[in-house]
Write a structure and sequence with these properties.
This protein is of the alpha/beta class and about 130 residues long. It has a single domain, classed as Rossmann fold. Helices cover about 40% and strands about 20% of the residues. The protein is built from 5 helices and 5 strands. Strands 2-1-3-4-5 form a 5-stranded parallel sheet, with helices on both faces. The protein starts with a strand and ends in an 11-residue tail after the last helix.
Length: about 130
């Protein structure tokens, strides 16, 4: 079972992602975070397999949060979520070590596939 941590400022969006994940038998949401500092504390506590992180997360930001998670928990996959699909965001996601970048408007099936994939290249430039 894949353990998931969701980090997004929007409580409603976190609840939505939790509901979607909980309908899948092989996924378990182990925690939620509303800021980058909460993200790091929760990641250390729960040691998730996958972290879904909003690029625009408050505090240090989702990109820096992703970099720190990859540094401290290298086995954890980080999927950055963004409302924009710009080359600069894709380049930053790759630079900060994200495993994938997903537009928040993408189909849920795409998110679920990324969560289940051990190594993804969903965005050109991401590892």
């Amino acid at each position: 079972m894949a353990k998931i941590l969701i980090a997004d400022e929007s409580r409603e969006f976190r609840k939505f992602l939790r509901r979607v994940s909980e309908t899948e038998k092989d996924l378990e949401v182990v925690g939620e975070a509303a800021s980058a500092s909460e993200l790091l504390v929760s990641a250390r506590q729960f040691r998730p397999d996958v972290v879904l992180v909003d690029v625009a997360l408050s505090g240090m930001g989702g990109l820096e949060g992703a970099r720190r998670i990859k540094s401290e928990l290298p086995g954890t996959r980080v999927i950055l979520l963004s409302v924009v699909d710009e080359l600069a965001v894709r380049d930053a996601a790759a630079k900060y070590g994200a495993d994938a970048l997903l537009n928040k408007g993408a189909p849920i099936s795409e998110m679920l596939a990324l969560i289940r994939t051990r190594k993804s290249k969903a965005v050109k430039g991401c590892a």
